Description:
Blueprint: H1 3-13, E1 17-22, H2 26-35, E2 41-47, H3 51-60, E3 68-69, H4 73-79, E4 82-85, H5 88-92, E5 99-102, H6 107-119, E6 123-126, H7 129-146, E7 150-152, H8 157-170, E8 174-182, H9 196-200, H10 204-209, H11 214-221, H12 224-237, H13 256-259, E9 274-279, E10 296-301, H14 305-313, E11 324-329, H15 339-348, E12 360-366, E13 375-377, E14 384-390, H16 391-396, E15 406-410, E16 425-426, H17 432-444
Parallel strand pairs: 1-2, 1-5, 2-4, 3-4, 5-6, 6-7, 8-9
Antiparallel strand pairs: 8-10, 10-11, 12-14, 13-15, 15-16
Helix pairs in contact: 6-7, 7-12, 7-17, 8-12
Amino acid sequence: MNLYRMLLERQEKGHIIRVGLIGAGKFGTMFVSQALRTPGIHLVAVADLNPERARRSMSSTGWPEEQIDAGTMDEALRKGKTFITDSSEELINSSGMDIIIEATGIPAVGIRHALSCIRAGKHVVMVNVEGDALAGPLLAKKAAEAGVIYSLAYGDQPALIAEQVDWARACGLEVVAAGKGTKYLPEYHYSTPDTVWHYYGLTPEEARVGGMNSKMFNSFLDGTKSAIEMAAVANATGLLPPSDGLQFPPCGIGALADILKPAEFGGILEQKGMVEVISSLHRDGSNVPRDLRWGVFVSFEAPTDYVKRCFSEYGLVTDETGRYSALYRPYHLIGLELGISVASIALRKEPTGCASGFRGDVVSIAKKDLSPGEILDGEGGYTVWGKLFPARDSLSKGLLPLGLAQGIKVVREVPKGTPLSWNDVALSLSDDALIIRKEMEKAFSDAL
């Protein structure tokens, strides 16, 4: 509750938090829009493969042209301006940087950047939840060993869910489930970039004018992004993934306590302590009243009859037993909230969510019948979608992580709807992301 006061104090004392941003996409641009207006923070540099895009992003959010320095990073640091570069390594290895934000969205790239930050002694905020789902537990372990902080990004749903879980547990409440809302129907799993705009109620031309990326938006629709985010939550909180993937039950905010509880008590969970995603649509396609499409939730149980009575006295919405209730947040503000991660790391030495184990994994499911010679195109594409599995099952069955299913060749027939295994594809043994992934599996296999 004191972050703003602490930021002001840093500003007054001249101890500014020096931040670097890698990736000037939507998430990064939203952070840029707020960094100029947040006391105690200096956005020293932005790295993007397209520096002109980064410059346009900054201008579009209201940055004065004179604030964007065309000199060097050291000059930008001294003058309180922001340097734009196409070199992420230059940014990471700058001596004047405290915290690096990785916002590229590409798993292999994000992992490489995170490792570079750790080697350089820089704290890292991993907006790149795709990279976190692939190797986050190992990255967090390496960061801790190096004495730096590895953090999920506040404003994105996994960090907000982790915060709600922490709140409930710190209050002495038993967490029953936690997760988020989304728009879901079973048929969406097989959506492609060619069909995505139909499901969103847009024409391709409307999407083009709006600058929308069909592959990225399709990853939200086909269930892949939900699986990735819930893997991050499971690994950060200790909550467990469902044994056969997310169920996406239709559920409005008034029914959270009824649905997000164990099946033996009338809910849909296999047991207490699980992650789940709820749908804003009924299976017939009709809208769920008072849906939580953009929000996050945690459901919890009263540990005693006294607490159950308190739930009733203070107006909590509960299930029919009065013992189960839930807290929700209807919205998340993406990069507009990312400064909370920066402030928490710099001022409290705390991440806003961080993997503590390897519990959830995202595996590749064939969107169509795949034939030898076909090239997988990764998240949101034409060939695979991502399904959440318990990590122990993913490893024991030798299933292919979704984060590696990009640009690799299929070598065996894989029927539609079937998980891909390592043996179904040809992988380069020199690929950095593959090496790190295998190192993580070895590091955590004994705990599964």
